[in-house]
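[stage:ingest] chain + small molecule (beta-D-fucopyranose)
[stage:ingest] validated
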Amino acid sequence: MRTPEETFPTHFTFGVATSAYQVEGGIENDWAEWERAGKLKEPHARCGRAVDHWRRYEEDYALAKAVGATAFRISLEWARIEPERGRFDEAALEAYRERLLKMKAQGLRPVVTLHHFTHPSWFHRETPWHLPQSVPTFRRYARRCAALLEGLDALVISFNEPMVLLLGGYLQGAIPPGIADGALTMRALENMVRAHAAARQELLERLGRVELGISQNMLAFTPDRWWHPLDRALVRLASPAYNHAFHEALASGHLRVNMPGVASTRVSIPEARDSVEFIGVNYYSRAHLRFVPRPPFIEFKYRDTRGRGLTDIGWEDWPEGFLQTLRDVKRYGRPVWITENGIDDRAGSRRPHYLHSHLAQVLAARAEGVDVQGYLYWSLLDNFEWLEGWGPRFGLYHVDFDTLERRPTPACDYFRAVATQRRLVAPGSSL
Ligand code: FCB
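[stage:predict] done
[stage:export] tokens:
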């Protein structure tokens, strides 16, 4: 007989994750503007038709079913739904509703993200996150989204990786809206916490009950020089600020960030207290932090310390950090969903092993009493990877970006075997 740690219980969900801008195609928003301004790594790259999921969604649901998935994460594209401030596009709302109903009818539980990095372009001009007006603006959008979710028993994510958006868009100026200001970053963070709480009110009013969370990018931090007191001090500051500040605010109603010389805040937001039903974790890698004697005082690197080789996007393959991360979120006393985990593996050969080593950590966490209820692989399909454009390939299915043909990678068989047998089969064994 197998010990319970070797198997996933029947209620454990295996699914796949996507986001609107990266797969749908034909979206006009702040990212499309950013691309036209030549701000991607490859200045001529464009998301454009993406992988045409907007038209091929039924085929893509079938592909998800074929790997044994029973949940499908999408995001709603705000710019489609509210193309001008205050004007909602009924046809876009109807199209999303139809997609969600079809998804559900195919036996895929919808996991719906309201905000996955992108905004309608007017948002940054009129009600950017650092202004209080952003909160009612998001609330009004969330009210429309709530109506789409009726009767679906969806898992709902208000914000995907708010800290990544804020670091990239407000502190470093590398992604939209391209601001680089620590004080504005903290105001934007506070407003996003308030916006989450406001969206929750709308969802509750419309749906009566909701399973709501955020997807938080969580990094396993480590000192670049294990012996260096300042590298170690950085790790002690970075993990609470980056990994936990948002989760913590939604649990306690207190938002605290303490990154001296970078950005700090301390504010009470009572309406955010107890405002999630689950903890969403996006885990990819470990980051080595090194103190440098000039602002912003932190250097951030991925390193290949174990000779496993970095992934193709250059991230360390560090499954051990997944367990550490899952142990760390146990403190919130809520069920945990892995809302993203995956590898950029352009040849498609490493992914089964990556899945195996990371799912082993999920089982280890469950054995320690962390209530992990689901695992959503990023991503079903190769897609448009933000600043990196069309280089990375995270998909279980390989997509030919010219013909848009979807072809299974070896990880499809592996994922299906684990999802259907509910145990960790060895990669490469006959499935
Ligand atoms: C995450 C994003 C997701 C995708 C993966 C690779 O940070 O949420 O959209 O780009 O990384």
